[in-house]
Amino acid sequence: MPIDAAKAVAAEPRTGEITWTSKDVQLYHLGIGAGTPATDPDELRYTLESRLHVLPSFATVAGSGSPGVINGLSMPGIEVDLARVLHGGQTLTIHRPIPAEGTATATGRIAAVYDKGKAAVLVMRTDVADADGPLWTNDAQIFVRGEGGWGGDRGPSARLEPPVGEPTRTVERPVREDQALLYRLSGDWNPLHADPEFAKVAGFERPILHGLCTYGMTLKAVVDTLLGGDVTRVRSYTTRFAGVVYPGETLRIRMWRQEGDAVRVAVSAVERDDAPVLADTVVEHA
């Protein structure tokens, strides 16, 4: 079996220095659709260096995402075909507001390997800290199709009960035709999102949008709509990637305010009869 669960979990963490600048933050924000309308004061907070604030989901690409998901797939005990890899879910915990420029230490490891029968799930954890202490923790849940069935721990279920009642707010966000090409400049070079031939080998009719691009677009919508545009209020952000998005489609983002300072979110693709895109999504906030 290409995945040796015990070896992967026991492997020494990989540690490296990451750096980012305001230009990296601006590029990320443009990659998730910020800047429209270009002169809107609310959008200039994402695009103009003199008033720049950092959407917390930037943590998924800071330092080009290093150690990152692709790097994690080369950890000891892991040997997989990239065409069989799908990003299943993401959990981000913010310990402090992310500065617009910084240098930090990123420590990445395989936190768990689960056997889902027809697939293996790798939990890749990255802890990032600078000289002042912890900044964020990223957990990426990676599905590797065809690599389950060895009798290992199935792991916890990420499924939540659906939100009750009408959404507090519903917004729609267009995905540009070149959105994936722009977003990948922030560090995720998986050809699934750009190369039509690779996408066909992976089972898709054409390149798909990065799940983490949808993830960022959704958090921006929640912050702008329900959190008064204040990025520092976000404490954690969890989602399960329930379906694909094709560039050129429209995201329908439904939001429900919850007790205990949380927002439940569901995201679907408008043009495909509201096909689910993000599910079991929760933004916890101050």
Topology, element by element:
Layout: H1 5-10, E1 14-20, H2 22-31, H3 41-47, H4 68-72, E2 85-94, E3 102-115, E4 119-130, E5 133-145, E6 169-174, H5 179-183, H6 196-201, H7 211-226, E7 234-241, E8 250-258, E9 262-269, E10 275-285
Antiparallel strand pairs: 1-3, 2-5, 2-7, 3-4, 4-5, 6-8, 7-10, 8-9, 9-10
Quick one: how many beta strands? Answer: 10
Structure class: alpha+beta
Largest sheet: 10 strands, antiparallel
Low-confidence spans: pLDDT under 50, at least 5 residues? none
Order of helices and strands: HEHHHEEEEEHHHEEEE
> In angstroms, what is the radius of gyration?
18 Å
Give the overall form.
globular
Overall helicity = 10-25%
Report the span from N to C terminus: 44 Å
Summarize the structure.
With 286 residues, this protein is an alpha+beta fold. The chain is built from 7 helices and 10 strands.
Can you give keywords for this protein?
286 residues, 7 helices, alpha+beta, 10-stranded antiparallel β-sheet
Q: What does this entry look like structurally?
A:
This protein is about 20% helix and about 35% strand. It is an alpha+beta fold and about 290 residues long. Strand 8 (about 250-260) and strand 9 (about 260-270) form a beta hairpin.
